[in-house]
Structure formats: C-alpha cells, structure tokens
Amino acid sequence: xxxxxxxxxxxxxxxxxxxxxxxxxxxxxxxxxxxxxxxxxxxxxxxxxxxxxxxxxxxxxxxxxxxxxxxxxxxxxxxxxxxxxxxxxxxxxxxxxxxxxxxxxxxxxxxxxxxxxxxxxxxxxxxxxxxxxxxxxxxxxxxxxxxxxxxxxxxxxxxxxxxxxxxxxxxxxxxxxxxxxxxxxxxxxxxxxxxxxxxxxxxxxxxxxxxxxxxxxxxxxxxxxxxxxxxxxxxxxxxxxxxxxxxxxxxxxxxxxxxxxxxxxxx
Length: 267
Fold this sequence. Notes:
Layout: H1 4-27, E1 36-37, H2 39-46, H3 50-62, E2 66-68, E3 75-77, H4 80-84, H5 86-90, H6 93-109, E4 112-118, E5 123-129, E6 144-145, H7 151-158, H8 162-170, H9 182-195, E7 198-201, E8 208-216, E9 222-231, H10 237-257
Antiparallel strand pairs: 1-3, 2-3, 4-5, 4-9, 5-6, 7-8, 8-9
Helix pairs in contact: 2-3, 6-10, 7-9
C-alpha cells in the first residue's frame, strides 16, 4: 500500500524530472542548421505553452545558457554552456592537439593565439593563449563571431559551398555591415582559400588585427582555424607578414597531427 507521503514524493520526483526534460527539449531546439529560435517556434516544437517556454528561457538567459539576438529578438545558445561543457572541451580532439602548438605560437609572436571552430553560422573560440604584452586582444572562452570580415569567418566561409555562403549573407546571419559589396567579398573568400590564410587588418575594428589559417583533419575537411589576434598599433605591414607565416606554419603542424596530408583530396 502506498502512503500519502510516498505519493507526494513520487509526484515531486515526476514533476522535477519533467522540468528537466522540458529544459533539455528546449535546448535541443537550437541546432547547427537552426541556431536561433523564437518562443513560438520552440513552443511548437516542444509542445508546451508559450508562457512555459518564456519562463524556461528567462532562467536560461539569466544563467547565460541562452542569449537573445538584439535584432531578431530570437534566442540562441549562450557562452554559459562553455562552463558546463568544460570537461567535454578538455577532450575535444583538435583542441587537445592544438594546445601545445598554440603555446609555441604565442611565445614566438608575443601575440594572442586562438583556436576557433565552426558551428555552421558562427566562429566559436574554444582555446586561447593570451599575449605576454600588457596591451593585448583577448576574448572569453566560447566567444562567438559572425562578422564577415573577421579572419576566422573568412576562412570558414571560404570552405563552405557558395550557395551556403550566399544564404548566410542574405539572411544576415553573417554580417557584412555594408563594408564591402557581396561579390567583392566572395572574391576575397576565394583568395583566402587559395592563399591558405585570411587577414582582418582593422576591417572589423580600427584597433584590431587578426590572422587565421585553416586546420584540416585526415579527410581534408576543415575542422578549426588557428588565429593570431593583436592590437593594430603595433602591427606594421612587415610584422603582419611575419604573423601570417607563423600562423600558417602552426595550422599546418596541427593539421599534420590531425592526420592531414597535403595530398589529401579536399571536398
């Protein structure tokens, strides 16, 4: 015979479990293909009332697990997930392989060395070795970028099919901010892929320089970018060339440790 107290405990456990399941269901609505979603969209997918979804999202936003896009007012996954996913990131294969080489890169150049991955619409920072200089460019782990002139964005888009790149630009998921015509930008991407590196020489900010080179896996697919970030004021044209050489060399070394061979046919 089940007592009243046991029934209450069972109800409490069931209620708690359903709340957890609902939160997980909400988070699963954010995918690589659809990184942003509104309350109504999520409610339709999860099968809950919009008021319930709003409460869940408000709590997740307060914990930075999700964040709201200021333009569309839709939600996307936030940097707070990085703290939760810390143990997973520690075992991320490319991150583990790149870490010692990023250390060497930062020491050799004196600038901040970063490893970014691509989530289908944004470039995400997953490792960083800060510059030894008092004035440096750094960002929080898990920082996400979608500005078209960012060095890593250029590299990742340079390896996307043309129709995918156009779709990201047309939908403003990648922001050009009117700095360059689309066709000229696409030519820039083609040049970046051909050269094997991309440069942001004050295009996104007058104070910042970024250099990025691609990391390939054993199949020849791009899986990450090695980037150097530095203040604009101390990067002359000559220094920029040196940073490019170091960045490209490091990315090639990481790629080699990932099993990549220059003879590997890329898609």
